[in-house]
Amino acid sequence: MKLPAPELHIRAVEMQLLKCPFCGLRSETEFHFATEAGKPRPEPADDTSAEKWNEYLHLQNALGDEVSEIWVHLTCGEFFLLKRNTRTREVLDCSALPGRDT
Length: 102
Ligand SMILES: [Zn+2]
Prior knowledge:
Elements: E1 17-20, E2 24-27, E3 31-36, H1 50-58, E4 67-73, E5 78-84, E6 91-96
Zinc ion is lined by residues 20, 22-23, 73, 75-76, 78.
């Protein structure tokens, strides 16, 4: 008796375009998430435990309708501020970090 072929559940994910404030619209594959914006860095760094560094680097507190994050455009190497809705993936705003001219 031949068993039915397993169903494949492949869902196509639409490629998203993100806007680098310096280069314009580019494929999301050219970008990398850096960190939440405004997240306080553990200080003093030398006295911070590995557990605290792990929480700072890998746990994200801000999820929701409008979060502010720091992203880097890998092609030009510039870090910038990205505001987005993490539920819908909608990009709300992209801007240079304070003190950086575009
Ligand atoms: Zn760029």
